[in-house]
Specification:
The chain is mainly α. It has helices spanning 20-29, 39-43, 46-58, 79-89, 91-138, 145-160, 164-170, 185-203, 208-222, 224-235, and strands at 3-5, 8-10, 18-19, 65-68, 74-77. The strands form two sheets. A three-stranded antiparallel sheet has the order 3-5-4. A hairpin with a 5-residue loop joins strand 4 and strand 5. Helix 6 packs across helix 8 (185-203) and helix 6 runs parallel beside helix 9 (208-222). It is elongated and about 80 Å long.
């Protein structure tokens, strides 16, 4: 999990432990006293010893602290000791560390969820194309390539406020890139849901205008509030 505090990159070792020396640099950049808040002084405290003993007891096969020699060396500690050191520095730096870790974790979760939603949306797409083909076949109508693009643009217009071509231009997305890879988690979930519903509406024979109205209604009821909240969160 990549971590940066106050412009200081906190290195990690192969086991995922964090460099306490880097955290000290970040604490100093945050206003902490360089000499009194050195890692060595913290590691001489009773609270560090108690935390170290407890971590060792709970995880006997894992070392909570290691020292690495060389250019990228230093003292590397587990996340619990990062929090403990930050609390020892001062309350402000402690909160800074907690909030930074939370932001990184939440960002990672959203990234994973976004990838999963994009994959679901991709898997839902054939169901929509099949519904279009079978629906037109049942009605004795010929199927052209634009019938598929029209349906996907219907979803884009409702979920994104514009067709795919306009969205690419507005966000400088290359024609070879997938739009889905540039969407937020809420936008992806909205598109995934509307694609699935649209396929079902086509299967029951609902005409284009009626489906457009129904999908717009579902968008307002199920997705518009979440998307607006997401936009506000990204702005701030």
């Amino acid at each position: 999990m990549a971590l940066s505090l106050g412009g200081v990159k906190i290195k990690q070792d192969l086991e995922g432990r964090y460099c306490l020396n880097d955290l000290h640099k970040a604490a100093v950049a945050d206003g902490a006293n360089k000499r009194t808040k050195e890692p060595g002084k913290y590691m001489a405290t009773e609270s560090f010893t108690e935390m170290f003993d407890e971590l060792t007891t709970q995880n006997p096969g894992s070392l909570p602290v290691v020292t690495i020699e060389g250019r990228s060396g230093g003292t590397y500690v587990v996340k619990e000791l990062i929090y403990a050191y930050a609390m020892w520095v001062n309350a402000r730096f402690h909160l800074h560390v907690i909030r930074t870790f939370d932001a990184v974790v939440i960002g990672h979760i959203q990234l994973v969820e976004g990838k999963q939603a994009r994959e679901r949306a991709r898997l839902e797409a054939p169901a929509l194309t099949d519904a279009i083909k079978h629906g037109r076949l049942a009605a004795g109508k010929e199927t052209k390539h634009y019938h598929f693009s029209n349906e996907f643009d219907l979803i884009n217009r409702i979920a994104l406020g514009m067709p795919s071509k306009a969205y690419r231009a507005a966000h400088c997305i290359s024609p070879t890139d997938s739009i889905r890879d540039h969407l937020t988690p809420c936008e992806i979930r909205c598109i995934e849901h509307l694609q699935r519903v649209n396929a079902s509406l086509i299967d029951v024979g609902m005409d284009f205008e009626s489906r457009k109205q129904k999908l717009s209604q579902i968008y307002i009821q199920r997705h518009s509030r979440a998307l607006l909240s997401e936009i506000k969160r990204l702005e701030f």
